[in-house]
Amino acid sequence: MAHTPANTFTHGPLGLIFAKTALPIIFVMGMNGLLTVVDAIFLGRYVGPDALGAVTLIFPLYMVIVALATLVSNGMSSILARHLGANDHTAAARVFVGAHGMALLMSGVLIAGYLVFGRSVTLALASGSEPLAEMGQVYLAITAFMAPLAFILAVNSDALRNEGHVGFMAAMSLLVSLSNIGFNYLLIAIMGLGVAGSAWGTALAQLLALSIIIGFRITRKATLQPSMLLAHDWRANWTRILALGAPQSLSFIGIALSSAAVIVALQMVNTPKYESTVAAFGIMTRVMTFVFLPLLGLTHAMQSIVGNNFGAQAWDRSDQSLRIGIWIALVYCTLMQLAFVMLPEPIARLFVSDPGVIAEFARILPVNSAMLWLAGPLIVIATYFQAIGNATRAALLGLTKSYAFGLPLIFLLPLIWGEWGIWYAGPLAEVLMALLTAIVLYQTVSGLGLRRGLFTAPSGPQTA
């Protein structure tokens, strides 16, 4: 019988556990952001602006793929962490196998969707431009057919995190980023494969990492073994995976829809500097992505720590994990907001030299990010409900901002304040989200008996 590794989340100082768990994930998230930038540089310099434009056009479709992969891996992660925390390895194996089955089903649906709608959708996104549509379709075709690889890698990476192999998981993610850059340079700059080279570079990097992960599991250094895929039902836990993975999955789709809504709203209000404003918005989106990635890493780490301790019924530790997560998010987001208020022009100059774009960026960034300090703790609270398996509250707090507040406000506020209303929508959505969170926590006190709507332990935090 294989040796069962000790659970690294349920014992020891929580601060140190947070550092060991979160820092590698945050580093990997940053590398993923760097990959996005470098990929754009290769396409722009070695292929041309049309190639970069073609890949940009299918961003909403790419986000759908990311959202579905997140649906499976993140939904599995919440259940898996609690089973591992409770030392129920049989149940953990079932959800691990079920996630593989769902990953293959989802990727099959994506491939079928591309075969039916791929050509017409890319042509519509390209506004009828055949050359752009052709390049976009090449990129989308490779990405769609390689979706099973991306999905299975996402499932195994999240499983490694919950098994306590955070360092190895981070190393594999770093390998994906660095090898992707190397493959892209070879395929785009040296071999001249254009957008196809970009897509194949990603697939080859993912294949390399997944091969190493499978080898790691076969050596029985991991709790979850490949042989388990033959011992359990591939349809296990699908309903729970869907319910728990939906909030973050739909949040990715919400990001794509919000970006598209801003572009449409700018056209509706006839902004006088449309080209410069859109360019500034594009830079702001990249900057906010870089800010969001470390926060996402923090929430992933907190989910594993809270889930394991909650599953082990170590209520004081799961409560304290939440407190640590909220404070880190608050401090981090406050520092980022101060940087946005004080340094918008230097940030813009990192991307462009055009004075008009720099001026627009400096105008809209401080306004649009005015409530960033509040966003971090709210995201942590939503993730906490997901970590403890409360899918309803996790979905409510994870999806309302984009779908119920953000998108409508982007179109409604310009009716009052004109173009400025577009940039007020984000901060106002955060304020409304804070009010909704307060209502949910008040209801949770009476409905579930949790102190302040969050804490499970009957009294304050105990000594870890």
From TrEMBL:
Keywords, ordered alphabetically: Antibiotic resistance, Antiport, Cell membrane, Ion transport, Membrane, Transmembrane, Transmembrane helix, Transport
Protein localization: Cell inner membrane
GO molecular function: antiporter activity; xenobiotic transmembrane transporter activity
Topology class, membrane: Multi-pass membrane protein
Main location: membrane
Transmembrane segments: 21-45, 51-72, 93-117, 137-156, 168-193, 199-220, 241-266, 278-301, 322-343, 363-384, 396-416, 422-442
GO cellular component: a single term: plasma membrane
InterPro entries: MATE_fam (IPR002528), MATE_MdtK (IPR050222), MATE_MepA-like (IPR045070), MdtK-like (IPR048279)
Pfam families listed in its UniProt record: MatE
Ubl conjugation keyword on record: no
GO biological process, alphabetically ordered: monoatomic ion transport; response to antibiotic
Record's keyword annotation contains Transmembrane helix: yes
Protein family according to the UniProt entry: Belongs to the multi antimicrobial extrusion (MATE) (TC 2.A.66.1) family. MepA subfamily.
Name of the molecule in the record: Multidrug export protein MepA
Organism: Sulfitobacter aestuariivivens
